[in-house]
Design goal:
Keywords: Pyridoxal phosphate. It holds the Pfam family Beta_elim_lyase. This is Low specificity L-threonine aldolase. The structure is a single chain. Helix 9 (about 165-175) links the parallel strand 5 and strand 6 (about 180-185). The model has no long low-confidence stretch (mean pLDDT about 95). The protein is an alpha/beta fold. About 45% of the residues lie in helices and about 15% in strands. The longest helix is centred in the last third of the chain and has 18 residues, at about 265-285. Helix 2 crosses helix 15 (about 310-325), helix 4 (about 55-70) runs parallel beside helix 13 (about 250-265) and helix 5 packs across helix 12 (about 230-240). It has two domains: about 1-30 and about 265-370, Alpha-Beta Complex (Aspartate Aminotransferase, domain 1), CATH 3.90.1150.10; about 50-245, 3-Layer(aba) Sandwich (Aspartate Aminotransferase, domain 2).
Length: about 375
């Protein structure tokens, strides 16, 4: 009972910290460990701190522009602000305030409709299927739009991606309509193994790209928008207007540089092992009606797992497994659709590489026994 009375976030933090094995995500750090990790960044720590975006922040911007093959990049304190600025800039440059996106895209689900409330933009949906729109859906869509926004991968649909040929075709369809293409690439870093292309070639399809530094890379916070120099300069103007011109941002910038160095080289291994983990989960849950891994196989190192149990029961069983057995399988569960049908997101990162398929199957059996 004492464990159940704790603050839920603190209890989960302690359970994951104390677990011997962790399947999904990275082991959480204390504040002291986070501070020590900043020293891993490939940047001289004897340098002066940044002031209003110079110094280490400019170094990070140059690094991101190079990785994505773009002329310039701008650092933002949050992805929501970055998306807001990017879409607003394209609306001004194209003269069209309509953005074609997916109803499960991040601005629709997780940003409180900032694009509409703050910038007066409107969205249209070429498709509502759990995938990005096809070239035909974009080409034949009845309403005009100035910007096509593609979320790669589409997180709330299950971290799904099109094939490379489908992506090229949908971008081409937007170009035929004289629309610009903006990629919500919060997790773009992890798409290269699926597409079999370098990041520069993927980003080259778009006029602008947004990337996150804490998703995939494990940074503290922050994001960047990359694109043509003039567009990025305009985005920086809106960054200032939206309150994103912070006096110092060196902790976030250092953590981002460290994450780029540490995590980018590992993503191929993470994605390959995600297929092993997903297959083992599907096998372990084959006898549970309604259980599903989606997509199978995963398109990135992240995927969804659906189980026919209440979210609170699954979360409690998982915490008990971590506290009593030292085995942490999943994070929080939610019921995004029918009550009693719950979903969690599985992220295969460094700790999961130690797990064999047999380890996964055995641990899932112990979780089910606690339900």
């Amino acid at each position: 009972m004492a464990d159940e009375m704790k603050d839920p976030a603190q209890r989960r933090f302690e359970a994951l910290r104390g677990a011997r094995r962790l399947l999904s995500g990275q082991r959480p750090q204390t504040l002291r460990e986070g501070l020590a990790g900043l020293a891993e960044a490939p940047y001289p720590l004897d340098s002066r701190p940044d002031v209003y975006g110079d110094g280490v922040v400019e170094e990070l911007e140059r690094k991101v522009a190079g990785l994505l093959g773009k002329e310039a990049a701008a650092f933002f304190p949050t992805g929501t602000m970055a998306q807001q600025a990017a879409l607003r800039c394209w609306a001004e440059l194209t003269g069209d305030r309509t953005v074609a996106m997916h109803p499960l895209a991040h601005p629709e689900v997780h940003e409180r409709f900032a694009y509409a409330q703050l910038s007066g933009l409107r969205s249209v949906w070429p498709t509502s299927a759990r995938r990005i729109a096809t070239a035909d859906e974009v080409a034949d869509f009845a309403e005009p739009f100035g910007t096509l926004m593609l979320e790669l991968p589409l997180r709330d649909a299950g971290f799904v991606l099109p094939s490379w040929e489908e992506l090229v075709a949908v971008v081409g369809a937007a170009r035929e309509r004289d629309a610009v293409v903006h990629v919500d690439g919060a997790r773009l870093w992890e798409t290269a193994p699926h597409f079999g292309r370098p990041l520069t070639e993927i980003a080259d399809l778009a006029d602008s790209v947004y990337v996150s530094f804490y998703k995939t890379l494990g940074g503290i916070s922050g994001a960047a928008v990359a694109g043509p120099e003039g567009f990025v300069a305009q985005a920086k103007t809106w960054r200032h207007r939206y309150g994103g011109q912070l006096y110092q941002q060196w902790p976030a910038a250092l953590a981002a540089l460290a994450g780029i160095d540490r995590e980018l080289p590992r993503l191929d291994a993470y994605t390959a092992h995600a297929k092993v983990v997903a297959a083992a989960l599907a096998e372990a849950l084959a006898g549970v009606p309604g259980a599903r891994v989606f997509p199978e196989p995963p398109h990135t190192h992240q995927f969804q797992l659906w189980l026919p149990f209440a979210a609170d029961d699954l979360t409690e069983a998982g915490l008990r497994l971590a506290e009593e057995d030292g085995t942490a399988l999943f994070g929080w569960w939610a019921e995004p659709g029918l009550p009693g049908l719950s979903c969690t997101e599985v992220t295969v990162a460094g700790p999961a590489l130690e797990w064999t398929a047999a380890d996964v199957r055995e641990a899932v059996g112990r979780l089910l026994a606690r339900l």
